[in-house]
Amino acid sequence: MVAVFAITAIADPNFLSAYNMQNTVKWSSLYGVMSIGVAFVIITGGIDLSIGSVVGLVAVVLSFFTKIQGLDPILAIGLTLLMSVVIGLVHGLLITKAKLQPFVVTLCGLLIYRSLSRWLTDNQSLGPVPLEGDLGFENLERILTLDFIFSGQIAIGSFFKLPTPAIFLLVLALAAAVFLRKTIWGRYLYALGNNEEGARYSGIDTDRMKIIAYVLCSFFAGIAGILFAFELGSVQPAQTGEFYELFAIAAAVLGGCSLRGGEGSILGVIIAAAVIRIIFNSINMVGISTHLEFGILGLVILLGVIGDEILKKKMAERQVAASERLAAELSEKSKNNQALE
Amino acid sequence: MSDAQGLLLEVRELKKSFPGVLALKGVSLTLGKGEVISLIGENGAGKSTLMKILAGVQPSDSGDYFIDGKQVDFKNVREAMDLGIALIHQELNLASNLDLASNIFLGREPGKKGFIHEEKLHAEATRHLKRVGLDLPSDTIAGSLPIGKQQLVEIAKALSCDARVLIMDEPTSSLSQKETETLFEVVKGLRDEGISVIYISHRLGEVKELSDRVTVFRDGENAGDLAKDEINHDNMVRLMVGRELSEFYDRDIHQAGDCVLKAVDLVSPAYPEIPVSIEVRAGEIVGIAGLVGAGRTELLQTIFGVTPSLGGKLEIQGESFSPSSPADGVHAGLALAPEDRKQHGLVLPMTVRENSSLPSLERDQKMGFLDHAKEKVIADEAVEQMKIKTPSIEQAARFLSGGNQQKIVLGKWLAMKPKLLMLDEPTRGIDIGAKREIYKLMEKLAGKGIAILFVSSEMEEVLGMADRVYVMHEGKISGELQPNQMSEESIMQLATGGSLAA
User: Fold this and answer.
1) Are residues B307 and B456 in the same domain?
2) What is the rounded average pLDDT of the residues B478-491?
3) How far apart are CA B205 and CA B209, in angstroms?
4) Are residues A217 and A174 in the same domain?
5) Which one of B47, B243, B297, B347 makes the best mutation probe of the A interface by having the most chain A beta carbons within 10 Å?
6) pLDDT tens digit string along A77-119?
């Protein structure tokens, strides 16, 4: 990441401008939140393709509640987050009890939630925050405060204004990292991702843990949805959130989560999310055609993953050597013992 | 030189080293035509290394090979097979979704321009299957056969390549007594045809029955050979270990305590019509014998909660118990060391420490948080008590030998202080030294009042370790043997569906 950062900075000094940095931080945070959520699921060896549509649906429903229904925005936020939790629960149950494949379940989710978004609003775009010329917004003050919370900026020093989503990212990332590394449930997730049967035979309730992973994933997507909604101001039911899941999954994979399960770290995921944003940014700044954006992204992820595999192989070789050295030592020792007898 | 003539295969001064370890220090081996020799030795003695070199899987560092008296060299599996050397793996290599004929001729299908000549494929396959005594249609799907028959198919495959030397690595570890006998018949038949076999096994009883000669390795060197009349348990162990091993199974007479497990008319999903009743008391070591497929593993799995029962009663220390998952079993004080150690017993990519502590995490948690200190204590204790050989507790479990992996499984359960420890084939594929340690451990645990229920296909092991034996046959308990009734004959009788003589 440092390398990409440096190269871009050198290539175009504008990169380092406060505005650009703020932008990068903001977008990294928004996508980062999604990436953390999907990391939980990937660590268990599953996948969630629906998170982009969940983001879209959440943004739409939130706007629907605040603008059209006129609900108290805090209630609206609560309800939409609840909805995302329920979505995750449904995914989890279908995958564990009905034994359906995660790919299939979440792919269908992707399609279903997207169409729900469109149906609910008759494919009209709307937003939770009043735009120019919008009349009839109830609870206006509340909304504006929330707008600040979710998409405002906090000044740090005289040059940099930290986008508030970054704070969300930090808090969530910290919580997620602690959950994964320091709690028993995190250990269970890694174990079940590595070997589900082995984990089950050791007494772990693998079904429950998997459901938790999917609930967390959708919940985080829900939070991201709310952040995106306030950030974008206007949500297009057909498009908002489209392809976001690819970014999130790419960040997770680049950040070290093997799609086979059992591996991954939150720090890696966040750094990867940031790298991806920076790359996009630098592509623009350096003047490479935007058509190549996705292509370059794909290349970077591929290289990153290859590098990861090579590293792992080296580590494995070291461990094997250690085992063999030990075996040699022990056989030497037993020979010496025999000689003494 | 002329003394190499008449020998089918000779290997001289074979050396092989890996980073940090000298696996073979200059070993020699001879094999005559139509001879069955066994290669025995403790784990790490170099048997698998030699085997892999002979099969062409790995190259040696130095050494000479002679086939039919002529010096040869081969660099890969293909060349080894062209010379007539075939390896039958311990872990079977059949494609379970393909049929037998396809498996036998995989990669060498008769036909032209990419199209397979079906008739010829099946005719040839049937011919080779008959050679190993399998009278099955060659379009049978490989995965539908029991392991014993799958193994015979592998042999048929090797024979179809005109193998003259078959190397068999622990072929009977997944076989029942009956399947083992079938295998022996096949091996003897092949020997009479002039095909030679190098038989690698830890089961000394089988080695004695099958071999014309025994070659012993120890620490990467030749430790001696035994001619047919010299082959007996003591001689073999002496050469393998380098010293006398007294009393392999060290059993004290136990006073059994209260009933820990009581199953009445328990029905496993695998055998829905058959109720099973057994009992295990504290401090008892109860064995379950029987042929493969008798339903022993299924019974343990039902008791533990992996496959919840369809009916009947289970009681743990008098309290009713109906597990719907292994988690329930663990909470009730049960522990299971499963038959498939790698898939079910451990999470291989995780470290020794993580594996040892896995079931204990719930108990030792601090409001959901891991107790790292306690984890380390559990892992260190496991390594010490079980004498696990590992460079550190942070070593990934998959780099440890089979014996050490099994010790991790046992160590992990002991940390839970179970009331009943169930072991499914606890010493399969484990070398003599580790086996002995596991037996000592079982003894120690029984002494502490833990009830032990173990399934084993090794007659010696069952007779040596069990206080009492249940024998299963096709899903039901065909009999219970008290100490004075326990013998190979009585077990075999019950295992094959017969009944005890009055």
Assistant:
1) yes
2) 83
3) 6
4) yes
5) B347
6) 888 899 999 999 999 999 999 989 999 999 999 999 988 888 8
Q: How many CB pairs under 8 A join A and B?
A: 115
Q: What is the pLDDT of residues B418-477, one digit of tens each?
A: 999 999 999 887 777 788 888 888 988 888 889 999 999 877 788 888 989 999 988 889
Q: Answer yes or no: do A320 and B399 touch at CB < 8 A.
A: yes
Task: Give me the residues of chain A with pLDDT under 50, please.
Answer: 1, 131-136, 341
Q: Does A283 share its domain with A301?
A: no
Residue in A closest to B390 by C-alpha: A323
Token pair, residue A311, equals 């590293």
Is B331–A203 a contact, with Cβ atoms under 8 angstroms apart?
Answer: yes
Q: Are A187 and B369 inside 8 Å of each other by CB?
A: no
Residues A223 and A145 in one domain: yes
- A324 Cβ under 8 Å from any chain B Cβ: yes
Residue A281 belongs to domain spanning: 2-288
> Do residues B166 and B194 lie in contact, with contact meaning Cβ atoms separated by under 8 Å?
no
- Give the domain-ending residue among B184, B219, B241: B241
State which residue of chain B sits closest to A205, comparing Cα positions.
Answer: B327
Query: Quick one: DSSP state of residue B344?
Result: I
Burial per residue of B188-224, b for 16 or more beta-carbon CB atoms within 10 angstroms, e otherwise: eebbeeebbbbbbbbbbebbbebbbbbbbbbbbbbbe
Task: Identify the CATH number of the domain in which residue B483 sits.
Answer: 3.40.50.300
pLDDT at site A133? 37
Identify whether residues B181 and B97 lie together within a single domain.
Answer: yes
Tally of domains within chain A: 2
The answer on A139 and A49 residing in a single domain is yes
Query: Which residues neighbour B38 within 8 Å (Cβ) at sequence distance 6 or greater?
Result: B198, B199, B200, B201, B207, B210, B211, B213, B214, B215
- In a shared domain, residues B265 and B323: yes
Q: Report yes or no: B480 and B456 within 8 Å, Cβ to Cβ.
A: no
Report the gap between the CA of B3 and the closest CA in chain A (Å). 33
Dist CA B225 CA B218 (whole Å): 12
Shortest CA gap A262–chain B (Å): 8
Partner-chain contact A328 B345, CB within 8 Å: no
Do B323 and B358 fall within a single domain? Answer: no
A27 shares its domain with A69 = yes
Decide which of A21 and B243 is more confident: A21
Q: Cα(A91)–Cα(B140) distance, rounded to whole angstroms?
A: 39
Torsion, CA B176, CA B178, CA B181, CA B183, rounded to 10: -60
Contact yes or no for B347/A198 (Cβ under 8 A): yes
For A99-217, strand residue ranges (E) read: 153-156, 160-163
Residue B249 belongs to a domain: no
* Alpha-carbon gap: B63 to the closest alpha carbon of chain A (Å): 21
Structure tokens at B381: 């204790």
Between CA A170 and CA B287 the distance in angstroms is: 56
Contacts with B22 from chain A: Cβ below 8 Å = 328
Same-domain check for residues B309 and B383: no
Phi and psi at residue B275, to the nearest 5°: -80, 140
Of B241, B275, B299, which residue constitutes the final position of a domain? Answer: B241
Residue at B436 is within a domain: no
In angstroms, the CA B483 to CA B458 distance is 17
B38 and B177 share one domain:
yes
The number of distinct structural domains making up chain B is 3
How far is A188 from chain B, CA to nearest CA, in Å? 8
Q: Measured between CA atoms, how close is A139 to chain B, in angstroms?
A: 40
In terms of DSSP bridges, do strands B85-88 and B165-169 run parallel, antiparallel, or are they unpaired? parallel
Q: B352: domain range?
A: 341-417
Amino acid letter, residue B13 = E
Do A316 and B396 make contact, defined as CB atoms within 8 angstroms? yes
Pairing of strands B420-424, B451-455: parallel
